[in-house]
Amino acid sequence: MTASVNPATQGLAEFHEISNPFNLPMNKLNRPSAELIEKLSAIVGEPYGLRDPQAQAPYLTEWRDKYFGKTALVLRPGSAGEISEILKLANEARVGIVPQGGNTGLVGGQIPFESGDEIVLSTQRLNKVREVNAAGGYMVVEAGVTLAEAQLAAEDAGALFPLSLGSQGSCRIGGNLASNAGGVQVLSYGNARDLTLGIEVVLADGRIWDGLRALKKDNTGYDLKDLFVGSEGTLGVIAAAVLKLYPVPAETTTAFAALGDLEAVLRLFEESRAVAGQGLTAFEFMAGWCLDTVAAHMPGNRKPLEGNAGWYVLLEISSGVADGSAQRIMERVLGDALERGMAKDAVIAASLNQANQLWKLREDLSEAQKYAGGSIKHDISVPVAKIPEFVRRGADVVEGVVPGARPFIFGHFGDGNVHYNVAQPEGSDKAAYLSKWEEMSDAVHALVADMGGSISAEHGIGRMKREALTRFRSKTELDMMRAIKAALDPNGILNPGKLI
After folding, report:
1. Same domain flag for 329 and 396
2. Taking CA atoms, which of 330, 401, 415, 483 is between 20 and 30 Å from 250?
3. For residue 166, what is the domain's CATH number?
């Protein structure tokens, strides 16, 4: 065995032998015994302890087919109490547990390793909306509630839960919090951490922490919930959460604009924010050829503007008062941009249906990438003012690794989150190109680090970026992470080999 082995393709036991930079006790994990499997299955009941490979299949690979895992058992507990019993037994037996929500993660954090030594714990059956309190500005939901269901529960109560992702029909609240999900509304409302008031967590040894507090101010010691939000299931299993609710905007105006370069996009963002303030609820951007790809290949889409442009922006301005102010502000922003030559063309949605059509262009970008061939994906962030520089320098970096590779660029411009996905050169071999994944990612991440950015803006670390984390975070930061992991999960049973 050599240090060049790729851990993503190895069994968990082998992985622990070649790479355990924090000296955690993960190498002491055991394969689940037949007796343990029987005991764990009895906790959830036979229908919810899946042993048949065909029944397990949906839990063992992610939608991009990059990771394929194995397991002896998929558990589907129906309560925090059942999770507690599961973790207590697993911790005593020192058997790894992989928490999984909607299985929509993009970095492999929810997939077990290929050895089959771990047990998958799905939170899908924890699917109750326990309380919606619009007047109090919060709702209490279990981890298995889908994001779309949480949004609908808030809407039915006359409130808004603003977290919004392309996968919201299948991703689940527990996974959203575990990965600190972002999405298209971060500009105004923040990411999942900002939207969380309290959580209920099951610790590695089976203890349950009831932190379901609907408090906006609580300075009684460390903010423990923030340890678990964004921890990717490595510190505890989130069972339920108290989420913030907001008033539903009285009116929202959506527009689409064409611009020649990213400097113009940056100026439009700065001026939109100056005029609209907190009313600027979305500012998404995409490269011109990304829009062309969506319009050409994704059903129900067409380009909303004539001609071609280097870059496009999707803007949304909202208002708490139904007095036409959102429309007037949008007209002012875009009118000024067109008059000064900052924008080449623009359209304002005249109806909800038109607004949905504009949003569909943005939401279909991820799936449309497959039509450009193999894609090496990066979810990064840099300071907003540096996005144009990053894209310019990134083009040279990409060309240096694979000549002719094509950056497929889109994302949440307003919070600096760029989905920098590099498509293969036209006419090249897909497998040969994807073999350059690590080299390409190392080069892109080095540029991100040089510009003071982050190698993971909203997707997490998981399996894919675990080694990169050790290169782009300081020893002090990594030591603190190690200490936290050792304190809360001393046997290393929770999502072993992920994140740290």
Report:
1. no
2. 415
3. 3.30.465.10
How many whole angstroms separate alpha carbon 466 and alpha carbon 445?
A: 13
In angstroms, the CA 346 to CA 307 distance is 12
- Concatenating the DSSP letter of every residue in 261-315 gives SHHHHHHHHHHHHHHHGGGEEEEEEEEHHHHHHHHHHSTT---SSSS--SEEEEE
Identify residue 16 by its one-letter amino acid code.
Answer: H
- Which structural domain, as residue segments, surrounds residue 71? 7-124
Which amino acid belongs to residue 81?
A: G
Amino acid at the residue 119: I
335 and 405 share one domain: no
Q: Name residues whose C-beta falls within 8 Å of residue 496's C-beta, 6 or more positions apart in sequence.
A: 12, 16, 26, 29, 96, 118
282 and 210 in one domain? no
CATH number at residue 92: 3.30.43.10
Q: In 3-state terms, what secondary structure has residue 37? A: helix
Q: Name the domain count of the chain.
A: 4
**Per-residue CA distances from 474 to 16, 336, 469 (Å):** 22, 45, 9
Residue 141 is given by DSSP the state E
Q: Is residue 216 part of a domain?
A: yes
Tokens of 419: 């989905």
The model's pLDDT over 229-264, given as tens digits with 9 standing for 90+, comes to: 999 999 999 999 999 999 999 999 999 999 999 999
Q: 334 and 397: one domain?
A: no
Q: What is the DSSP letter of 249?
A: P
* 63: nearest Cα among 99, 35, 34, 103: 103
Pairing of strands 119-122, 97-100: parallel
Identify whether 478 is part of a domain: no
Evaluated on CA atoms 292, 294, 295, 301, the torsion sign reads negative
CA–CA gap between residue 356 and residue 238 (Å, rounded): 33
Which of 438, 455, 468, 453 is CA-nearest to residue 389?
A: 453
**Rounded CA separation 487/2 (Å):** 31
| Distance of alpha carbon 52 from alpha carbon 37, whole angstroms | 13
pLDDT digits (tens, 9 = 90+) for 337-370: 999 999 999 999 999 999 999 999 999 999 999 9
